[in-house]
Hints:
Elements: E1 7-12, E2 15-20, H1 31-45, E3 52-57, H2 68-71, H3 76-82, H4 85-88, E4 98-102, E5 105-107, H5 109-115, E6 119-123, E7 127-129, H6 143-151, H7 153-162, E8 166-167, H8 168-173, E9 179-181, H9 183-198, H10 202-217, H11 220-234, H12 238-248
Parallel strand pairs: 2-3, 3-4, 4-6, 5-7, 6-9
Antiparallel strand pairs: 1-2, 7-8
The structure holds 4-(N,N-dimethylamino)cinnamoyl-COA.
Amino acid sequence: MSHHSYIKVKKEGSVAKLYLNRPQQLNALHRAMVEEIVTALEHLDGDEEVRVIILLGKGKTFAAGADIDEMMEADPIQLEQLNQFAVWDRIRLIKKPLLAAVHGVALGGGFELALHCDLIFAAADARFGFPEVKLGVMPGAGGTQYLTKAVGKHRALQWLWSGEMLEATLLWQAGLIVRLFPEQELEQEVTIYAQRLASQAPLALRLIKEAVNKAQDLPLVEGMAWERKNFYLLFASQDQKEGMRAFKAKRSPRFTGR
Length: 258
Ligand code: DAK
């Protein structure tokens, strides 16, 4: 189904895979590529057959950051007028579970893309980093915010100031990566995880995601209100009835997402 230039999309039942596919440039993210990624994510988010989305990289690596060639001569007025983050910010609006499977490196914008996913899985020898400081700039696509929320101020500052490559094991210890696998098993293992997730009630998954994201943004009382609203909402679903009846009948539930 893929008619894209810089990505590849593959549907495997209820799991969709979106591959970054600009391997000669180590999947460096330029504007046209970001546009393709976000448009495809939105398409999959609206596709009833799809329940979980996995982001992966083709070739040697996940993504070596934003495209330096494209940024090099930029000036601030041009950047303001391009308003390229308007596209990027739509990633946050994806409602379905979004998993990153990272091998090779995830640097700069590549790391930020992984941080926009709900869970990050990685190859045991993958490396991550924010090299922006070495280019005389700083992250602009959420790096300082997402990383700080994920690992706290002190580790975030250390890593953002150094610009160093960080071993996946270090990020796993920090709780940012949920599981590590040998690189040759990464895609298969993340697919198995995604398939299991795809058998859960889809509306529950998306409303849990929304509530957890609110927990990161809002004061507790407001977050609790979101939780309660979403909890009530699920009682309007057929899957709530199915889940509870299946429990009583001692059989497995069959969730339809309705
Ligand atoms: N941009 C452009 N080309 C890149 C690239 C990049 N980020 N990374 C690699 N390439 C290109 C290389 O130039 C090289 O091209 P040729 O020389 O073959 O033409 C080819 O990919 C292979 O790379 P290497 O020869 O360097 O491969 P190595 O295995 O030796 O090294 C490396 C791999 C990952 C260590 C190295 O390539 C590297 O350090 N890359 C740059 C890492 C980096 O500084 N990344 C940029 C951080 S700044 C935005 C979103 C995010 C951002 C901005 C805007 N929007 C939504 C608009 C964030 C900014 C950043 O990410």
